[in-house]
Specification:
heterotrimer, A alpha+beta, B alpha/beta, C mainly alpha, A: alpha+beta, MetI-like fold, four-stranded antiparallel β-sheet, two-stranded antiparallel sheet, 9 helices, 63% helix, C: mainly alpha, 2 strands, extended
Chain lengths: 329, 349, 282
């Protein structure tokens, strides 16, 4: 091996980097374990099999206090996914519209969209979530006198209730019937129910992220050379066809990578739902942390799950990006 | 291939480095030594509530008052000679145990319930019960509810990470009420949601309910605290396990305050009693006849300073949560054992 | 037409296309309204919709926030105006706590001066005329002044003011300082990591990718929770790192990863350069 060759230098630098990092990580781990042992703090993931002992306000699967902690974490994960998926779909729609509005020919639309994006991007997301939650629970009527509309839609402090088709298996026949919400005991039961916490989180996250998506879409639309649009118009394509067949396909290549960032941000910002009482993953983990005292393990679980969600989203979006990317030869 | 063998060399090097690092650099954490750290810093770091009036709350000028805060002041007076040598760290319920475990704070005085799990598996030790409490419910008076058993299917606002959640679930299960909890991380968010009408009821320790009602309700008469106490909630300060010296100091300062009330020592008659008393018990508490402080690592006047700073237990109670305050709590279970309550101080001798 | 005969002017004049009107160079409000707001049917529709939206919402908001608002710190007036007008009295009473947090009341002139100094420096750094060598000196002095005023001590030496420990700092000065320091420290880190991510050396690339993906994949509150409450658990006994330093390091590491990705996105738009042919002796 020649000591002054490029390869040797590369080798030495990389080995040195890895040794330093490994030593650092090993030192931190050793300290943690020693500290925990000295203070008598129990560690280990076995608590996941213990009975949870707490109820969860809303969940997509059956859960009661007799079930294990791991199932509680699963409920939290499903709640987080519920908010994230709804938010991603809605923010893309709203953000695209606002982004197009920002480059439109109408000055009023341009101005209002500008105000929208600047306002929503610059106010911290936590404040926006709190504001939506306060609006939803202060200005809505009580649960026993809800806003009633469109035959079966109820809006009140208890949330939004919609009729929902369910299977009704009777003795002889089974048919699809509408489960209509109704006021029972001063609360609204039945139908598909969205709690005010879910509505506030989804609304707040959607609008906040849509402002960023609008900016991303705008930058994508403006990145398409003017010549392309002029050429399309001179071919006789009207503005709508130009947008659909010429501008958007070229803009997508610039839009998709930053969009991934925004989707990841939305998923992670949903962890702020704990401030307004939505039982997402961080909320459930807080409860588990307090009841079992296993801080390191619970935080490790949350970080692991969010990391997994982020990597999956990135992988999916990267695959899509490769499909729309310019192929260089 | 040359590349593969190089990669494996690097991986082996990393493992070697990691194990070397672990062996060379892991230092055994030394248990104990909180008293030394406190004396060196000349300050006690006290974990308190973010804002529960009567127990631990700060005003607009940043001055902290409350029953739990007074316990910290008494400890500071006994150990450091000055009740103001305390740094208060406001902690929410999820943060409090980690802060104590990790060494951020020296004592957690934050209306925390003593339970088996907290004593046995968190690496913490429970000192003395400063407030015997129970969990209750608060409902709007206009809802017409008179008993907690009428809360069938109700939404109840609760703060996360406390024994409250678990007790609520146990109560709901035992009485088949199918209660739906709405769980918030911060106290203010949970009370704001209840007062906005999101939930039918609010639940926490009965003393907490009184404090919240006095501070946040537009008209305290609009809210009713239901009579049922669904659990036992003995509240008191906690310290880290493994430091018996510090544990003893905190424990005996509090016992001293309780015994001072039993024997009629107040902040007002302190000096006079110290000069004139012939009662041997009072003499021992005030360091006149025996030097009990020396056994704890403190000096003779430890209890004198503590009582001078905050008064005895009864004075602390009346000043922060007693009948003349907005909370208007009766002594009840927190009266002296000789008056029918549960406060029984171990003798200072 | 034969080349020798003259063109038939009358016939040509009758067949001429009438001249078009000159292009409209008119400026002014009316012209702007005509093109921007009423240019096409769709434009007209959008204008009507937006105007209706504004007319529906704006008067209510103006009335709530300005016309019926209570500015004096009067609790009873606020209660009666509930739902009708905003209670800005809360701000006028508590503005000192909101701005400066739990900083000792009597010493609050110090964070005020420190914040103004930092703001002046930030604004000056945005102006091209100020981009000179003196700006660096001004920044060093400004930062020393900031920490000296806020804490009462600089690098361990007292500056003659009552010392105020870092956990009593709060409010606006803290936000400004954290943002400035974190952004300033994160940018060089981000450049290094972005370059490292494109490097030819596989291990450096792996370390940079791991760092970026780990940090991007995790919510900020978990990182802050770990940094403020669990870090002492990771340190040997007795080692205390100031809480502000921990927060700055946490935010820097966090922003550095995001900025690295943004920087990496830049060169992607350039077409991939052809590799230069290697001489046979290298």
């Amino acid at each position: 091996m020649r000591w002054h060759s490029r390869r040797t230098r590369a080798l030495l630098v990389q080995v040195g980097l890895v040794v330093v990092l490994a030593a650092l990580v090993g030192w931190l781990l050793a300290n943690t374990l020693a500290n925990m042992r000295a203070r008598g703090i129990q560690s280990g993931f076995d608590f996941l099999l213990d009975t949870a002992g707490f109820d969860i306000g809303e969940s997509l699967i059956d859960f009661d206090s007799e079930q294990a902690y791991w199932r509680a974490f699963l409920v939290g994960l499903l709640n987080t996914l519920r908010v994230s998926v709804t938010g991603i779909v809605l923010c893309t729609l709203i953000g695209t519209l606002v982004g197009i509005g920002r480059v439109s020919g109408n000055a009023l639309a341009r101005g209002l969209c500008y105000v929208y994006t600047e306002l929503l991007r610059n106010v911290p997301i936590l404040l926006q979530l709190l504001m939506w939650y306060v609006l939803l629970i202060e200005w809505m009527p009580e649960a026993d006198t809800p806003l009633h509309g469109l035959g079966g839609l109820y809006l009140s402090k208890g949330g939004l209730s919609l009729p929902w088709p369910t299977w009704d298996s009777g003795a002889w026949t089974s048919a699809l019937v509408w489960d209509m919400p109704a006021i029972v005991d001063g609360e609204i039961r039945g139908g598909l129910n969205f709690s005010p916490e879910f509505l506030a989180v989804t609304l707040g996250l959607t609008l906040y992220t849509s402002a960023f998506v609008a900016e991303v879409v705008r930058s994508g639309l403006q990145s398409v050379a003017r010549g392309q649009i002029e050429a399309a118009r001179s071919l006789g394509l009207n503005p709508w066809l130009t947008l659909r067949h010429v501008v958007l396909p070229q803009a997508m290549r610039v839009i998709v990578p930053p969009m991934t960032n925004q989707y990841l941000n939305l998923t992670k910002n949903s962890s702020l739902a704990v401030a307004i009482g939505y039982p997402d993953l961080v909320n459930i983990s807080n409860t588990a942390l307090n009841q079992t005292g296993r801080a390191v393990e619970c935080i490790a679980i949350i970080m692991g799950i969010y990391l997994m969600l982020s990597l999956l989203t990135s992988a999916f979006m990267n695959a899509y990006n490769r499909r729309v990317a310019i192929r260089e030869r | 291939m040359k590349t593969l063998s190089l990669t494996s060399t690097w991986i082996r090097a990393s493992w070697l480095a990691m194990s070397l690092g672990a062996a060379l650099l892991s230092l055994p954490a030394l248990a104990g030594k909180t008293l030394d750290a406190v004396k060196q810093r000349d300050q006690i770091v006290c974990g308190v509530n973010t804002g529960l009036s009567g127990f631990g709350a700060a005003d607009s000028q940043g001055k902290w008052t409350g029953l739990d805060v007074d316990m910290c002041r008494a400890i500071a007076a006994a150990v450091l000679g000055n009740p103001d040598k305390v740094r208060y760290v406001p902690l929410s319920a999820p943060q409090r145990f980690t802060a104590l475990q990790s060494g951020e704070i020296d004592v957690l005085s934050r209306n925390t319930t003593f339970t088996l799990t907290r004593d046995a598996s968190l690496g913490l030790s429970q000192t003395v019960v400063t407030y015997y409490d129970g969990q209750g419910f608060m409902v709007p008076t206009k809802s017409g509810l008179k008993s907690a058993k009428q809360l069938k299917g109700a939404t109840v606002c609760v703060q996360s990470g406390t024994t409250t959640e678990k007790n609520l679930t146990d109560f709901s299960r035992a009485n088949k009420l199918d209660i739906k909890p709405v769980v918030f991380e911060k106290l203010d968010a949970s009370t704001a949601a209840y007062f906005a009408g999101r939930c039918k009821a609010y639940t926490t320790d009965a003393s907490g309910l009184a404090s919240i009602r006095s501070k946040e309700a537009k008209d305290p008469k609009d809210h009713l605290i239901l009579p049922e106490l669904i659990s036992k909630e003995p509240l008191g300060p906690l310290v880290r396990r493994g430091d018996d010296e510090w544990f003893a100091i905190v424990k005996w300062v509090i016992y001293g305050l309780i015994e001072a009330e039993e024997y009629g020592i107040t902040a007002a008659n302190l000096e006079q009693l110290k000069a004139e008393t012939t009662d041997p018990v009072i003499g021992r508490i005030l360091g006149k006849t025996d030097d009990t402080g020396k056994l704890l690592g403190l000096d003779r006047e430890w209890m004198v300073r503590a009582i001078a700073a905050t008064g005895n237990y009864g004075e602390i109670f009346e000043r922060n949560v007693g009948e003349k305050t907005p909370l208007a709590l009766k002594r009840g279970l927190n009266a002296q054992w000789s008056k029918g309550g549960l406060q029984y101080a171990m003798p200072i001798r | 037409m034969s080349p020798s005969s003259t063109p038939d002017c009358a016939h040509a004049a009758a067949a001429l296309i009438p001249p078009r009107a000159a292009p409209n160079h008119a400026r002014g409000l009316r012209q702007w309204i005509r093109t921007e707001l009423l240019g096409s049917p769709m434009n007209v529709g959008v204008t009507l919709l937006m105007t209706a939206l504004l007319v529906w919402q704006l008067p209510g908001w103006v009335s709530w926030s300005m016309v019926h608002a209570i500015v004096q710190p009067d609790a009873d007036a606020c209660q009666t105006a509930r739902g009708l007008g905003a209670c800005w009295g809360v701000v006028s009473e508590k503005y000192r706590v909101i701005l400066f947090g739990r900083y000792p009341f009597a010493e609050q002139w110090r964070p005020l001066v420190a914040t103004l100094g930092l703001l002046v420096l930030l604004v000056a750094s945005c102006m091209r005329q100020c981009w000179q060598r003196g700006l660096v000196v001004a920044w060093i002095l400004g930062l020393c002044g900031f920490f000296g005023l806020m804490g009462g001590r600089l690098l361990g030496f007292s500056v003659g003011l009552t010392p105020v420990s870092t956990d009593q700092w709060g409010g606006f000065p803290l936000t400004l300082m954290l943002s400035t320091l974190s952004i300033a420290c994160a940018f060089p880190l981000a450049v290094l990591v972005a370059l490292g991510r494109r490097s030819d050396w596989p291990l450096v690339r792996a370390v940079c990718i791991t760092y970026i993906e780990l940090v991007r994949g995790v919510p900020l509150i978990t990182v802050l929770f770990m940094a403020s409450f669990m870090l002492p658990l990771f340190m040997p006994e007795g080692v205390k790192i100031d809480v502000l330093v921990r927060v700055v390091v946490g935010i820097t590491l966090f922003s550095g990863a995001y900025m690295a990705e943004v920087i990496r996105g830049g060169p992607r738009l350039c077409p991939k350069a052809r590799p230069k042919p290697r001489p046979h002796w290298a």
